[in-house]
Amino acid sequence: MFKLPKKKIIGITGTMGSGKSQVGKILSEKYSVLDCDKVNAELLLPNRKGFEELKERKLIKIDEDGYLDKKQLSFDMFQDKMIKKEVENILHPLIFQEMNAWIENQKDGLVFIEMPLLFEIGAQDHFDSIWCVVTKRNIALERLTKYRHIDTQEAMKRITKQMSEEKKASLSDVVIYNNGTLKELKQTIAQMVEREKSWS
């Protein structure tokens, strides 16, 4: 398990369609933000350690251009718990390694890490504060169908299979309600940042 340097590390989590990425994007205008989904995607590029280990264990399908078939891997992990566990056991330690190296290179007193499965993988003890982004179910479904091009039925399946929004919120230090306008979200984030600074 990785050891965090002495900075205030804030984790950002939430369910699908809650707007975690939007919160991260707003924060990145002034602060250092790491998106663990992007780290994961980079580890799955050809010749990267994650890709090579999964390939060696025959857990992934490769397309004709030599890249990972992401859609197939997502389907396999959703359908088979054993495959999901094996893939995560390979990728999660690598993500933590990348994350720790990134944190050590940051100069800001506050750094933010987007981690959708923060609670599911038991990473909460490694953060000084955890923000949970929540939104109404109908808004989340609309975002997933519009921006992620996932049909409503599939989006609902994925949301309900995750840890509930209520559970994540109850385990978090800060809950950000993302049901309004972008301006309102920015105002809320600014308030929460100031609060974190006062808690330092």
Keywords:
200 residues, alpha/beta, Rossmann fold, five-stranded parallel beta sheet, 9 helices, 5 strands, globular
Describe this structure in words.
By secondary structure, this protein is an alpha/beta fold. The protein has two domains: 11-31 and 112-195, P-loop containing nucleotide triphosphate hydrolases (Rossmann fold, 3-Layer(aba) Sandwich); 37-107. Helix content is 52%, strand content 13%. It is built from nine helices and five strands. The protein has helices spanning 20-27, 36-43, 49-56, 70-79, 81-104, 137-147, 152-161, 165-171, 182-199, and strands at residues 8-14, 32-35, 110-114, 129-134, 174-177. It has a five-stranded parallel beta sheet with strand order 2-3-1-4-5, with helices on both faces. Helix 2 crosses helix 5 and helix 3 runs antiparallel to helix 5. The longest helix has 24 residues, at 81-104. Its main location: cytoplasm.
Lateral arrangement of strands in the main beta sheet: 2-3-1-4-5
Topology-level CATH name of the largest domain: Rossmann fold
| Helix-strand makeup class | alpha/beta
Query: Whole-number average pLDDT?
Result: 91
State the shape. Answer: globular
Per CATH, the class of the largest domain reads Alpha Beta
- Helix count, DSSP H or I runs of 4 or more residues: 9
Oligomer: single chain
The CATH homologous superfamily of the largest domain is called P-loop containing nucleotide triphosphate hydrolases
DSSP E strands, number: 5
Order of helices and strands: EHEHHHHEEHHHEH
Gap between N and C termini, in Å? Answer: 24 Å
Q: Uncertain regions: pLDDT < 50 for 5+ in a row?
A: none
Task: Tell me the number of structural domains.
Answer: 2
Question: How much strand content do the residues show?
Answer: 5-15%
EC number: 2.7.1.24
Subcellular location: Cytoplasm
GO cellular component, one term: cytoplasm
GO molecular function: ATP binding; dephospho-CoA kinase activity
